[in-house]
Predict the structure.
Amino acid sequence: MEAKIALKMQFSACIDTDKFARRPSVSLPFSQKLREQHGHPISCHFQPRRTSNWQKHVALEASGSYRNFPAPILESGSFPPSLDEALILKNKSQEILPYIDGRCVYLVGMMGSGKTTIGKILSEVLGYSFCDSDTLVELAVKGTSVAEIFNLYGEGFFRNKESETLQKLSLTHHMVVSTGGGAVIRPINWKYMAKGISVWLDVPLEALARRISAVGTNSRPLLHHDSGDAYNRTLTRLSNLWKERGDAYANANARVSLEEIAAKLGHRDVTNLTPTVIAIEVSLSLSFHSIHTHTHNTSSWKHF
Ligand SMILES: Nc1ncnc2c1ncn2[C@@H]1O[C@H](COP(=O)(O)OP(=O)(O)OP(=O)(O)O)[C@@H](O)[C@H]1O
Ligand SMILES: O=C(O)C1=C[C@@H](O)[C@@H](O)[C@H](O)C1
C-alpha cells in the first residue's frame, strides 16, 4: 500500500487527477537554464482524460473510418482537409479504445522521429495523459536538462535514470509515452514497455537530419556539434547511431513507416505527411496489434 502511494505521488506529474481533468493542460515550472538548453519553453503536458464537448461532437459526427475513407482522396496523393484528418483520427481512436484497454502506448524511434509531436496528438484523442520520458528524467535530476546530465554525470547515469523512469511508467496506465531515442538499447526497458504497447515511428534518416538541423542540436547531446554544415553533420551522427541500434527498434509491437504512408498516399517523400496523418497510422497499427495478439495485460495497471 505504501509503495502504491509513493509511486502515485512520484507520478502525480503524469497521472490525471480531477484537477487536471478540468483544465486543458498543466505545465510544470522549469529552471531558466533548462529552458535555454531546449531553446524553447518546455513543459510536461497533462491532457484531460475526459472527452470534451468538442470531442464528443466529433465522435458523434464522424461517420467513416480510415479504412473506409473514400479511395479517390487516398489515391489522389493530396491530403484531405485537416478537419477530415481530425475526424478520421477521432473516429479511429474511439474504435481502438476497447482494444488497448487502458494500456500505455510507448512511442519509440530515433531522435526527431516525432514521438513527442505525435504522442501529444494521440493522447488527446484517446483521452490519455501524455508523458515525455526525457522530461521525467530531467525532473528526477532536479530539473537538470538531458544535455547537462550527459555533461555532468555521463551517459551511463542518464541510461540508469531512463530505465528507472520506464520501470515506474510500467506501473501506470492510460498514458502515451514519448520515450528517449536511445531507450531501445537496453533489453530491460523492453521488459517494462511490454506492459503496454510499443510503436516504432520509422522515419528516414535524411528527414530526421532535416528536422533536427532546423531546430539545432543543443538539447540532443549525442548529436551536438558546434560548427560546420548542420545537416551533413547531423546526418552522419544519426547514421552512426542507426548502425548501432537500428535493429533494436524492430522489437516494438508495431511499426509505422513514414515511407510506406507516403507511398500509400502517392507522395514522393515524407516531408508533407502531417502529424495527424501519422497519428492515424499509429492508431491503425495499435488496433492491428491488439486484434492480432489478443494479449490483454491484466497484471499491471489494473491492480495499481
Ligand atoms: N510530421 C512531421 N513533419 C514535419 N516535422 C515534424 C513532424 N513531426 C515532428 N516534426 C518536427 O520534428 C522535430 C522533432 O519532433 P519531436 O520533438 O516530436 O520528435 P521526438 O521523436 O520527440 O524527438 P526527441 O527524441 O529528440 O525528443 C520537431 O521540430 C517537430 O516539430
Ligand atoms: O537517441 C538517444 O540516445 C537520445 C535521445 C534523446 O531523446 C535523449 O534521451 C538523449 O539525448 C539520448
